[in-house]
């Protein structure tokens, strides 16, 4: 997609893209607070209930990379609109679900639609805003939507469940999606794309999609099967074998789906690795903090959502204002470092919370620290993940960045929540009360998240130049 003709048109396009993305991102968390109600209404088993979330994650995480490349080939607007249509129709089916199987199937289709639409958004923004200062601001808005949307989803889900029914967490997407499709067709410029002959690596597409889907499926299934089970080891080995075969093919294919040249950009490569680590800590932090507020402090769904608002507000204040200006002046690489420090500090402070913690004095200050860290880190990583990428590969790089975010989040959530369950069980066996045992498990999750932030910080210090090396490439 070429640069839009006027600043007003670019701004309107950015609003449409981010508003559409907000709908998709909200759906990743809005369902969390509704799960107990859905279980009672549709008769889910305890293990089956997890697949209301997991079915979405498997499709979403598995298709992002392929969807991003398809956007480059057939036109990013086409893929974006197709994803919105599919997501909206699937949302209607989710709301109409009368049984567990129907809801899980509709959630999988929702994940496919979400992958198609979200995989190309970042590429469209980068191409539409080529000037560095404008691009930094646009990426700040995009990052805010991505980070704050998860917190807003918790609040919206709680309010809809308490005031209406769980069906409305899906029905609300239908009018929003319909408007988004119409506006997208009117505001976003059409493009031809490179054509399927420019990069239609069908075997590579099958390998990477199957490998990513199987990998995400294996990760999210560890909650039931365990990490050392034959199922987990076997499926994990198969997923790795598929991804290894994909990597080998990319070195020899005439039109590789993931060209090795993409990784000649050091900022892009390091940013995606750091983002994988960061996502693992942050996904687990959000999930576990919601559990701590409800199971230990006794909050209701709406109260839990409200408790996350300071994080969203702080992220917004930084990513919409300060972060872009700092990145333009000092480089995204330098802005990333204090952001990771603040995230690690915030997670460590959470591990100090007591079972009788007060929100105003114990939780709120830490939420502000985490919001500051997220407001600095997320835009910086987003900008770095698109550094050195030619316009024809923008959709692919966008899909890659979203893939590392989702797969890293799924892996971190599975590993850290498994550790939390193990620690909680040991504490309970040792005589701790329910609140104390749960808190002990949550502490371990937050400590693990802090360690991931430190690992990301060390990588950034070692391999990113202080000024962010905007446009630098590996010698």
Structure commentary:
α4 runs antiparallel to α17. With 475 residues, the chain is an all-alpha fold. The chain contains 18 helices and no strands. Helix content is 79%, strand content 0%. The chain folds into two domains: 403 residues, MFS general substrate transporter like domains (Growth Hormone, Chain: A, Up-down Bundle); 54 residues.
**Helix/strand order, N-terminal first:** HHHHHHHHHHHHHHHHHH
Count of the domains? 2
**Main sheet attributes: strand count, strand direction, barrel closure:** none
Question: Whole-Å distance between the termini?
Answer: 29 Å
- Assign the CATH superfamily of the largest domain: MFS general substrate transporter like domains
Q: Could you say what the CATH architecture of the largest domain is?
A: Up-down Bundle
Question: Which topology of the largest domain does CATH recognise?
Answer: Growth Hormone, Chain: A
Described by its quaternary structure, the protein is single chain
> What number is the mean pLDDT?
80
Poorly predicted spans:
1-5, 468-475
CATH class of the largest domain: Mainly Alpha
Structural class assignment? mainly alpha
